[in-house]
């Protein structure tokens, strides 16, 4: 098993912890990571752009002039696409861009990016993060002592609300739960700081 150092809340070292090699010690699969990132980014698209076709535009029920005898081109409606204010041909319509990949694929992608973080020394395990009340300054000092002051993903166990609120106002710091670790968030971070309790939750999900 791969062992990494465990740090206390004050930044001092508190021993080591063994990581599951089936999660943190695999060979990264770049193709699976790429497919999963595309899926997550597509699912984040709002898809709210839209235009109206000629059947959705208001008005235009009456034929503007008779079919023959005027010398002008025949027209059936003033809401045809060639008219100003008419419908749009083949325009975009509001829709969802989301799609899903098999669970085995998405889990393999998460394992791949986590294994890469461990290999690069960018995964930091903290014994616990306990705050009596939200303390942003104390949380920022903790991240600085762990050399994880910028673009950091903090993974907390469920119910640790004070720690989550302590990091909420910090720039370029994102907080998620151990059960919510995903490929895109791990890739977008330079450091991953995770508590031992959240590590157990993560291993339980990915095992």
TrEMBL record:
Residues 43-78 are annotated as: Disordered. Residues 60-71 have a biased composition (Basic residues). Residues 43-54 have a biased composition (Polar residues). GO terms for cellular component: ribonucleoprotein complex; ribosome. It holds the Pfam family Ribosomal_L4. GO terms for molecular function: rRNA binding; structural constituent of ribosome. GO terms for biological process: translation. Keywords: Ribonucleoprotein, Ribosomal protein, RNA-binding, rRNA-binding. Belongs to the universal ribosomal protein uL4 family. One of the primary rRNA binding proteins, this protein initially binds near the 5'-end of the 23S rRNA. It is important during the early stages of 50S assembly. It makes multiple contacts with different domains of the 23S rRNA in the assembled 50S subunit and ribosome. Forms part of the polypeptide exit tunnel. NCBIfam families: rplD_bact. Part of the 50S ribosomal subunit. This is Large ribosomal subunit protein uL4. It comes from Fructilactobacillus florum 8D.
């Amino acid at each position: 098993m791969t062992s990494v150092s465990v740090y206390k809340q004050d930044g001092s070292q508190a021993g080591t912890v063994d990581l599951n090699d089936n999660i943190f010690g695999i060979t990264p699969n770049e193709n699976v990571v790429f497919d999963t990132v595309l899926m997550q980014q597509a699912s984040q698209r709002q898809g709210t752009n839209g235009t109206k076709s000629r059947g959705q535009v208001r008005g235009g029920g009456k034929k503007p002039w008779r079919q023959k005898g005027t010398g002008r081109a025949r027209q059936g409606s003033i809401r045809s696409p060639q008219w100003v204010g008419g419908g749009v041909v083949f325009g975009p319509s509001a829709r969802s861009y989301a799609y899903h990949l098999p669970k085995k694929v998405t889990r393999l992608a998460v394992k791949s990016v986590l294994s890469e973080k461990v290999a690069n020394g960018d995964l930091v395990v903290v014994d616990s993060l306990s705050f009596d009340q939200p303390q942003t300054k104390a949380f920022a000092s903790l991240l600085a002592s762990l050399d994880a002051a910028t673009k950091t993903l903090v993974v907390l166990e469920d119910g640790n609300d004070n720690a989550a609120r302590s990091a909420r106002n910090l720039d370029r710091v994102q907080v998620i739960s151990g059960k919510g670790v995903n490929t895109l968030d791990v890739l977008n971070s330079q450091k991953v700081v995770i508590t031992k309790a959240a590590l157990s939750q993560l291993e339980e999900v990915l095992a």
